[in-house]
Hints:
By secondary structure, the protein is an all-beta fold. The chain has one domain (17-293): Beta-galactosidase, Chain A, domain 5, CATH 2.70.98. The protein has no helices and 23 strands. It has a 9-stranded antiparallel sheet with strand order 6-7-8-9-23-19-18-13-16, with no helix packed on it. Strands 5, 11, 12, 14, 15, 17, 20 and 21 form an 8-stranded antiparallel sheet that branches. It is globular. Bound molecules: 6-O-phosphono-alpha-D-glucopyranose. Residues 1-21 are annotated as: Disordered. Pfam families: Aldose_epim. One of its GO terms (molecular function) is carbohydrate binding. Keywords: Isomerase.
Amino acid sequence: MSSGPHPLPVPRLPRSAALGPGRGGQPRLLIDAPAASAQIYLHGATVTSWIPRGGKEVLFTSRDAVFDGATAIRGGVPLCLPDFSTGIHGDALPKHGWARLVAWSLRSVEATAEGGVRALLAANRDGLSLLYEVEAGSSLGLTLSVRNDGAHPRTVEAALHTYLALHDVTSAELTGLEGSRYWDNLTSGPGPCDGRSSGGRLRINGPVDRIYDSTAAVSLTDPGNGRVITVSKRSAPSTIVWNPWSAASALPDMADAEFASMLCVESGAVRDHAPVIEPGATWSMQARIGVEAL
Ligand SMILES: O=P(O)(O)OC[C@H]1O[C@H](O)[C@H](O)[C@@H](O)[C@@H]1O
C-alpha cells in the first residue's frame, strides 16, 4: 500500500457543507445552507461563488480561470496580501502578494443561527499569520486578520479583490465614491474628483483601474438582474475599481467578452493606507457584500 502525502486535518463539518475536489480537482468547501450557497477553494482561500437563497450568483468567476493549485484564481475574491500589485515601492513579487497563491488550511466550519455557514481559514508565511473568516448567509461577510509574528513593525497592504457579476457592466451604476480622491492606474496619475458632474454615479464604458481613498459603502446597480449589490466595509480605507475591458483578451485566464459581465470593487488598505503592524499585534479588516431588489 502506498503511503501518500499526509492528509491535512479536516475539521468537523455541518451537514450544509462538504469538502472535496472542485474544478481541476482542487480542494473546495461547498456550502448549501438555508440562507445561501457558496464555494471556497483552499487555494488562496478564494471564495468563488456566493448565491443568496432565491437569488443569482453575485461573484464572477471566469470560465477560463485556472484551477491548478499554483495560479491565482481569476474571479471570486482573491486575497491580495502582503502587497497590492507590485507593492508600495513598485518592486514586490509576486504581484498582489502570496496570500492568493498558497494553500490555506480549514480551521473550522459551523452553521450560523441565521441559516448560513461560517468558515475559518488560516495561512502562515513570511512572519505573518493570517486568519480569514467567511460568513456565507443572506449577506457575505469577509473578515481578514493579520498578525505580525516578527520582531519588527511590518507595513502590510491588503485587499479583498472582489469580482462582482453583472448582467451588463455598461448599464451598471456605482454610487458611494463621489467626491473621493483616486489614483488612476491607467494614467499613473491622480484623477479628478469624479461623480459630482454625473450626479454621483459612476458608469463604466471603458477600461477602469482606480484606487480610491474611501471608507464609504458603495452600491452597484445591476438592472438586468433586477438587483443592487452593496459593499460595506470596516478598517478598509481603499476601494479599488477595475475592469480591464477588451484588454482582458490578453489575459490567458479570462474568456473573450467576459469583461462585459463583471466589475471588481475591491475593499482594502493599500499604498498610503497600508497599516503598520507592530510585533505581536493583529490588524483586521472586513467587507460585507449584500444584495437588494432594484
Ligand atoms: O491580473 P491580476 O494580477 O489578478 O491583477 C488584476 C488587477 O488587479 C487590481 O485591480 C489592479 O488595480 C489592476 O491593475 C490589476 O490589473
